[in-house]
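Reviewers of the previous submission asked for a worked example of the structure-prediction workflow described in the proposal, so we include one complete record here. The input consisted solely of the amino acid sequence. No template or homolog information was supplied to the procedure at any stage.
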Amino acid sequence: MAIMDSTSQQPALLLEICTDSADAALAAEAAGADRIELCSAIESGGLTPSYGCIKRCSELLKIPIQVLIRPRCGDFCYSENDFLQMLEDIAMAKLTGVQGIVSGVLNSDGSVDICRTELLVKQAQPLSFTFHRAFDLAHDPVQALEDVIRCGATRLLSSGQELTAEEGIALLSELVALADNRIIIMPGAGINAKSIGKLLAPKLFREFHMTARMFSDTETKIPTGLSGRDPIAQEGFWHTDIQKIKSVKKRMNT
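From that input alone, the workflow returned the following structure tokens.
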């Protein structure tokens, strides 16, 4: 359900933060996030999180959670085993009480795999369904939009087929007009306190997606790697940057 602005009776602006752990999700919530997209392996573009992570977040968070269903990194054209795993992962995620699923499938020619995406949407029901940035690899974005709508998705996450949503604002704006309120268009990629201004200016978008992360050195005294030679462990870790979220929320609320 959309958050309503009591003064205008219009849906309030919503900021979704991509996180990969319960600690990161809690930090994002404390910083003002309105919704969480939960995944694992953000450095690989995001993969399906574990059942334990989903369950823990569902138990702890007060804001809605959407779970990414992506079985592997690489392209978005999946084998039969990949796809059956996706269906099982959606069923698993629903057991934890989350509010939405984020997923999608493409054909090898760069078109939306309507049949499989429809099955994912049906498996997710009654949860909301976001078609993710696989859309940004579609060869024909106008046709892909119609196909995603036909599949029954609730929203579309996109950078406008550019590296950042700010660069893709022309296509994103066109998608809003073409969608004609049939689906939510949610800009994502490269959003920060500076770029959000350009995305807010046309007053076309109500939801925004952001990965607010920063790298910190580890506090452990354990040597990294095997015998100090094979670097299997990093000397730090990524976590939620609270200040980045607060800065974007401040711009959204002014």
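The longest strand covers residues 14-19. We consider this example representative of the routine output the project will generate in years two and three.
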